[in-house]
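Before the break, one more example. Copy the sequence into your notebook; we will annotate it together after we see the structure.
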Amino acid sequence: MEIENTGKSSLIKEGKCMIVAELSANHNHNLQTALDSIKAIADCGADAVKLQTYRPESITLDVHSEDFILKGGLWDGRQLFDLYKEACTPYEWHARLYEYARECGLICFSTPFDREGVDLLASLDNPIYKIASFEIMDLELIRYAARQQRPVVISTGVGSAREIEEAVNACREEGNNDVTLLKCTSAYPARIEDAQLSLMTELKSRYDVKVGLSDHSPGSMLPVLSVALGGVMIEKHFILDQSIGGPDAAFSMDKGEFRAMVEDVRKAEAALAPRGGIPEDEDSQRGGRQWSRSLYVADYIKAGEVFTEKNVKCVRPGFSLHPRNYAQLMGRTAKKNYQPGDRIDPDALKD
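Here is what the structure looks like once it is written out:
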C-alpha cells in the first residue's frame, strides 16, 4: 500500500485495503521483541505497522480513587495509570522502530494521545495520524493532529453520531479532508455478533469519508467482510507469540493467524475485483458451455421431416442451438438428415 503525496495532504489509496498490524503493548518493554515483531509483520504480508505514542500521564492521572480503577472485563481491578505504564511504547524507541519498519518495507505510523505525542510523530515524518476510539471526543487533540496535513484515521467505537461529526469537522476545519473512519467495537476482546459492520456503509455516506475496520474480535471473518463493504483499512492487533503474554495478548493475532488473515483479505479483494461486468456476448462464455444446455438431435431425422419433442432434446453440453429457440424450432422441417448427437445450427430456423 502506498501513500500518495498530493501537495498539502496525502491519500490512503482506495482499491487495495491497507492491512495494519497494531503492535500496541505486545513488546513487553523489550526493544528486541518490538523489532522482531516488525520483521514478522512484514513477513506476514501486512502493509503497515502501527504504534501507540503516549506516556501514562498522557492519558490519565496517577491516583487510586474508585473512578480510576477498572471494573469488569479483561483488566478488572487494574489502576488506569499502572495499566498504561505497562502498555506504553517508550518514546526513545520510536525513531528506531520507524527506521526499521521502513527497512522492512512497511509503513509505520502511530496513535498519539496528546500534543507531545503529535510533536514526536511529526519529527519522525509520521505519514498517518490515528485517533483512538476513546479519544474521539478530544477535539483539541484531533485538530492538532489534523493540522499536520497528513491522513487522519479515527476509530468510532464509542463515538455518538454527534461526536463522530464533530471529529470529522474538526479535521476539515483545519483544511484536512483526508479522513478515514474505522468501524470499531470497543470491547477487548469483541464479540463477532456485536460488530454491526453494516454501519460502515452508513459512515461512508453520512460523513463523506473513506471507511475501514479496527477489529478486536477473534479470527479474520470481520476483516474479510469489511472488504466487501468498501473498507480501505483493516487494523488488527499483532503479537509475536501468545506465550509472551501482556495486556493485549488476549485479542491479538499471532504470526500464523495474521498471515492467514492477509491471504483471506487478498482473496476477497480478488473475488470482488471487476472483470468486465455481466457478459453481453454469449459467445464469450463458450468456455463453460460444456456444462450448460442446448438443443441437440435425439433421434434420426430425415430431410423433410419435422422437428418434434421426440427427436429434439434440451441437454448438456451447450454447443448447439440455444434453448430459447425451442418453440420456434418445433414443427419446422429439417433441411438435411440428422442423427442422434448432431448439433442444430441457426439455419434450421430459416424458412
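Residues 255-272 form the longest helix (18 residues). The radius of gyration is 30 Å. Try to locate both features in your own notes.
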